[in-house]
UniProtKB/TrEMBL annotation:
Transmembrane segments: none
Keywords, comma-separated and alphabetical: Kinase, Lipoprotein, Transferase
Protein name: Kinase-associated lipoprotein B
Gene Ontology MF terms: kinase activity
């Protein structure tokens, strides 16, 4: 891997396309260019549990945000980089569809509540319209 290389980076529960801006012994700094997978909602230390002290609303990293990623969580990315706004919308819609497909799952219901808080923020930040989400 080298500075300036376009990569796929896995951070916590999300996945992103970005550009390496710094290289350190066990970590890369990656500038986010697109979202491939929206982060899961909830508590990272208690995944898929709803009875936790704090159930987090987890936003996707912002466009051009610099994130530190362990080097073992970075891979070369060979495809075209989608526009950030389009990639975020696609990642949110895919996550939303996963959650609504499991209406009896407490984790899915709670995650959907958290995601519905984030959607208006994404509209304000990026001007994304959400006609398919109630």
């Amino acid at each position: 891997m080298e500075k300036g290389q376009i990569v796929k980076a896995f951070r916590k529960t999300g996945s992103y396309v970005g550009e390496i801006t710094e290289i350190h012994p066990d970590m890369y700094v990656v500038r986010v260019l697109a979202v491939l997978k929206h982060p899961m909602q909830g508590n990272l230390h208690h995944p898929r549990e709803v009875d936790v002290p704090f159930f987090h609303e987890r936003k996707a990293h912002a466009y051009r945000e610099q994130i530190q990623v362990p080097s073992n969580m970075v891979r070369p990315y060979k495809e075209d980089v989608p526009p950030y706004k389009d990639s975020l919308r696609d990642a949110v819609l895919k996550f939303y569809d996963e959650l609504v497909s499991k209406p009896d799952d407490p984790f899915s219901r709670r995650s959907l509540e958290a995601l519905k808080v984030l959607i208006p923020e994404y509209k304000i930040m990026y001007g994304i319209e959400w006609p398919d989400i109630q």
